[in-house]
Amino acid sequence: MSEPERSFTLLDGGRPVEVPARVEGGAVRLSPQAVEALGWRLEPEGLCREGLCVPVPAGAALATPDGIALEALAALLDRPLALDLEEGAAYLGASAADRAGALASLEAPDFTLPDLHGRLHSLAEHRGKKVFLVAYASW
């Protein structure tokens, strides 16, 4: 017997999206509308977003009458998935190709942090200059 739909928070590209989902035996299933809330559509060509289509291999267990398996969706997109079923939350990480491209570019991602006086500073403000950045973690 399938569980009723419940609210699930998907973090994709740094933005949270609340979607209805079913959790069955540790697997999360989304409706096609929930996948569309993430910007993807299931088309005959495959899974499409903004002109890009990822082919769905024949026999892939992506879409079933019960919905679209979130784990299969993440695997198809070559993106890591972190799930917390108790909290009803999931995080879709960046694909390996995206991470490799970012590393190959040798360009640090932009971020903004406050100084000791509360003034905000962005890394992009210092483009073209030498910057000394110290990071500390207690662990």
- Please give the count of helices: 3
Order of helices and strands: EEEHEEEEEHEEHEE
Query: Which CATH first-tier class of the domain at 6-98 would you pick?
Result: Alpha Beta
Strand order across the biggest sheet?
7-8-3-2-1-10-9
* Biggest sheet record: 7 strands, mixed
Query: Could you name the CATH topology of the domain at 6-98?
Result: Ubiquitin-like (UB roll)
Helix content: 10-25%
Integer average pLDDT: 85
Count every beta strand, where a strand is a DSSP E run of 2 or more residues: 12
Question: Low-confidence parts lasting 5 or more residues at pLDDT below 50?
Answer: none
| C-alpha Rg (nearest Å) | 19 Å
What distance lies between the first and last C-alpha atoms, to the nearest angstrom?
Answer: 44 Å
What's the CATH architecture of the domain at 6-98? Roll
Strand content: 35-45%
Based on helices, strands and strand pairing, what is the structural class?
Answer: alpha+beta
